[in-house]
Design brief:
The protein has 107 residues and is mostly beta strands. The chain has no helices and nine strands. The chain has one domain: Sandwich (Jelly Rolls), CATH 2.60.120.
Length: 107
């Protein structure tokens, strides 16, 4: 099933949802940028992967382990990380969590 996108100018609530019943949502995607809200129920594993463009990951709620460049760090609500394009990374939710992920797309 394809992820739905918010319309230009649409306000999107990023906080306050019931994480276990919420769904990952691609907020928008343009020719240069993709922004999504990633839902991570406790114990969820996102295996190692990479994207060509730079990205940011901001923990909105809860906490998760974020592994990149051979280093694992716990990210908590309000924390942000930036990665260069092509950097392999993975996540493990320590508790119910959500993250805002922004990816610069390559044409």
């Amino acid at each position: 099933m394809a992820l739905s996108h918010a319309a230009p100018g649409q306000v999107v609530d990023l906080l306050g949802s019931n994480v276990p019943s919420a769904q990952t949502l691609a907020l928008f995607k343009s020719s240069e940028l993709e922004v999504m809200r990633l839902i991570l129920p406790a114990g969820k594993v996102v295996p190692s992967h990479q994207v060509p463009g730079e990205l940011t990951v901001q923990c909105l709620e809860g906490s998760f382990e974020f592994t990149a460049e051979g280093r694992t760090q716990v990210m908590r609500a309000g924390q942000l990380m930036h990665l260069s394009g092509g950097t392999a990374h993975s996540l493990v939710a320590l508790e119910d969590a959500s993250a805002l992920v922004t990816i610069v797309l390559h044409k």
